[in-house]
Design goal:
- Strands 3-4-5-6-9-10-11 form a seven-stranded antiparallel beta sheet. Strands 15-14-13-12-16 form a five-stranded antiparallel beta sheet.
- The chain has four domains: 4-19 and 40-162, no CATH class; 172-294, no CATH class; 305-484; 492-732, no CATH class.
- The chain is built from 25 helices and 19 strands.
- By secondary structure, it is an alpha+beta fold.
Length: 732
């Protein structure tokens, strides 16, 4: 029997991307005794390859094929990947280290371009084999590490540990599962990819495994040539160098699986070669049938009881009263409602989800997350409560919202995945950083709580009630009219254009106004915009906006009343707040040159190719421990952009770039009345940064009082008036 403590240690310290802390010497010794963790050892690349080729001759294909089948019903991960490891090892050519030409300080890891080995490339190097062994016990999960079954270190460790295991024999259920997978392949449309196949297999419910675990099974079959494409073959008879694989997507990716499509089907020649010596015709097209699920074997819903000590029944992080719920757009709790609590726990996160049932309908959800430090103290806490309307099948399954949907297990993930049919209240508690949000996710309307400085000081249930007493006492007379609108308003899609003025609600009484200057997705099609311009390298649907530099209680200001108000420097923001009516369009004005402004961008360019924009280059400078010397300075203002050799950049400008980040290539997800402090510090167009602006302009041969028009006249681009003419002409 496997050692539970050793498994816990392996999962804690090796499965996450970033594991906190290190194993104690006593724990390490105990884990080594169990055989689950193995000691480090020192090897060179060539020694690793020699060891792999030796093992590939000693281990039989039949034993690994039986082991793979055995793992399907047993769920024993130790037996699962030896098959693909052996197939890969037998195909691997004997070779010496061939570099992939990656630099140590670069974004790619130096490795062998043949086998993908990253250790012992130059000299003997110690290897922690547990980084690879973790996937012999645990399937990858979301936010966990991604396994690479086709790299030399994984294969060597996998085969060495497989040799230590008792022989395994598959049962009839194992054949049924694999035939079921093949049957699901037959259900695929010609263009379907591996993710569609994963969803099909999980939907049939004959294999008890997570989506990532199913994907890994498909990856193994693909490595073995059973799921391959015509142009990209598995490793049964062909070897593809690590440096030639390419084509990776985000998330779990296996070669050649990410090239496979439904039209490629199952390679039964490979199936017969791998399994035929002992299976006869039990894995043939005629047996490719989806197994009928045995409902009696369906596992009961698991509750992780060790999270319960962090929570008491009926006692929540924030104990809302029904009177407070009324002001937070929430329904009161009916004493007749029944509750069901679900828990989960990791080494630093404790979660509880409480479902409130009215008969068989989930009508309210409370979700809590507690972050616990190593001393058992709270690091931060999060409390969410929302009203909903989720129908269930006698509290066993979540019923679909539409006729095309499927019933799903009642889990926190599935419940939280459905947008609430009411408002959501959330409070995040952390010292000097506490936040409150109230919103309706179905219509994207919010109740602006405001009172930022008071909210920041909330650290406990008592602090919250004190805040709510103040909040309730200061609500305006029409407060509940606004709440009713937030709760009942239909989802809307708002049409808008350059020159529109919107109102941004700050709190219950105060608001700010902003001016829309244009949509970058339209502007980036203009021939006048330089190819390398930041507008061409931002995600979402950004709009260029300028906020008016004042706050008011006047909810009905017109364009005329705003004409003498100062505009703040521009920002790129996602259009969602405008598109969905979170911020209301209240007026329109004809744009004039003084309305138009663009971000002044400075970035250090370290590399120039199609994958490196000025924004990513500047980010690379910040992250790189070696701080490589830039090749040039990228400058952008308006529709003009150019580069200056780094050798020509004076020391005062270099020091300026070392102290700040003057390239905002990102997009703010929301439009806020206040510009964040880190952006104000690095925004050269703000009054408090005029000295820095002047130094940059002097270096560029311009006056410290120059405008974007002066910049365009010297370095190309278009004037503000020309921009207005073009956006009016092309924005119709």
């Amino acid at each position: 029997m496997t050692d539970k403590k050793a498994l816990t240690l392996l999962k804690k310290y090796y499965l996450p991307y970033t594991a906190e802390g290190t194993l104690s010497e006593s724990d390490r010794a105990d884990a080594f005794k169990s055989g689950i963790l193995v000691p480090d050892s020192a090897m060179t690349h060539d020694e690793i390859i020699t060891a792999i080729k030796s093992l590939s001759e000693d281990i039989s294909l039949e034993s690994t094929a039986k082991a793979f089948l055995y793992s399907l019903s047993s769920g024993d991960m130790r037996y699962r990947t030896a098959l693909s490891s052996l197939v890969w090892a037998r195909s691997l050519p004997k070779h010496e280290f061939i570099s992939n030409n990656a630099e140590k300080a670069g974004w790619r890891t130096p490795s062998c371009s043949v086998c993908g080995c990253t250790h012992g490339l130059v000299t003997t190097e110690r290897i922690d084999w547990n980084n690879y062994g973790v996937f012999r016990y645990f399937p990858p999960k979301q936010y966990g590490r991604e396994p690479d079954f086709a790299c030399a270190e994984y294969v060597l460790h996998d085969l060495r540990e497989f040799e230590k295991l008792p022989a395994a024999e598959p049962c009839e259920e194992d054949y049924c599962i694999l035939n079921g997978i093949f049957a699901c392949v037959g259900q695929m449309k010609p263009h379907n990819m591996d993710i569609a196949l994963v969803n099909e297999i999980r939907g049939k419910k004959f294999l008890d495994a997570t989506g990532n675990a199913v994907h890994c099974i498909l990856g193994i079959l693909s490595l073995c040539g059973i799921l391959e494409s015509t142009a990209h073959r598995g490793f049964l008879h062909n070897f593809t160098n690590s440096g030639e694989i390419g084509g990776y997507r985000d998330g779990l990716s296996f070669y050649p699986l990410f090239y496979w499509r439904g039209k490629n089907g199952v390679n039964y020649d490979a199936v017969n070669e791998i399994f035929g010596s002992f299976s006869g015709d039990r894995l043939s097209p005629s047996h490719a049938v989806i197994p009928v699920k045995n409902e009696a074997k369906a596992p009961a819903k698991k509750v992780v009881s060790k999270a319960e000590p962090y929570y008491s029944d009926g006692v929540y992080t924030i104990m809302l009263t029904d009177a407070e719920r009324r002001y937070l757009a929430l329904d009161p709790i009916d004493p007749s409602w029944e509750t069901e609590s679900m828990y989960s726990v990791t080494h630093w996160l404790k979660k509880r989800t409480v479902l409130f049932y009215k008969e068989n309908t989930i009508v309210k959800v409370i979700h809590e997350v507690h972050s616990i430090d190593d001393d058992g103290a709270y690091f931060w806490r999060d409390y969410s409560e929302f009203d909903t309307r989720l129908e269930t099948d006698n509290r066993k399954m979540l019923l679909p919202l539409t006729a095309r949907g499927r019933a799903k297990p009642i889990t926190p993930t599935n419940v939280m995945a459905v947008k609430p049919f009411g408002c959501t209240f959330n409070i995040y508690l952390k010292k000097e950083e506490s936040q409150i949000a109230v919103q309706n996710l179905r219509n994207n309307q919010i109740i602006p709580i405001g009172e930022e400085e008071r909210v920041k000081k909330i650290m406990s249930d008592e602090d919250f009630h004190e805040f709510m007493r103040y909040y309730i006492s200061t609500c305006p007379d029409d407060y509940f009219e606004h709440i009713s609108a937030v709760r009942n308003m239909k989802h809307q899609t708002v049409k808008f254009r350059a020159g529109d003025i919107f109102r941004c609600q700050i709190d219950r009484t105060h608001c700010a106004y902003g001016l829309i200057l244009g949509k970058t997705r339209e502007i980036e099609t203009w021939k006048e915009l330089p190819k390398e311009h930041s507008f061409r390298h931002v995600m979402t649907q950004p709009i260029l906006v300028r906020m008016y530099d004042f706050v008011t209680t006047d909810q009905e200001m017109s364009a005329a009343l705003l004409s003498d108000k100062t505009l703040c420097p521009p920002r790129l923001c996602s259009d969602c707040d405008i598109l969905w009516g979170t911020h209301k369009i209240v007026a329109h004005k004809k744009l004039v040159p003084d309305d138009i402004q663009f971000q002044l961008q400075l970035a250090r360019q370290v590399k120039k190719d199609e994958h490196f924009t000025p924004f990513t280059a500047e980010g690379f400078m910040e992250m790189s421990p070696s701080r490589p010397n830039p090749e040039s300075l990228y400058v952008e203002w308006g529709f003009a952009s150019f580069e200056i050799p780094w050798a020509d950049v004076p020391d005062n400008i270099r020091r300026l770039l070392d102290k700040g980040r003057y390239f905002d290539g990102g997009v703010a997800m929301f439009i806020n009345a206040d510009t964040p402090k880190h952006i104000r510090q690095d925004n050269l167009l703000l009054l408090e940064n005029r000295d820095k602006f002047g130094a940059v302009m002097e270096f560029l041969g311009l006056s410290p009082k120059c405008t974007v028009d002066d910049f365009a006249a010297k370095y190309g681009g278009i004037s503000r008036q020309k921009y207005i003419e073009l956006i009016e002409e092309r924005g119709k």
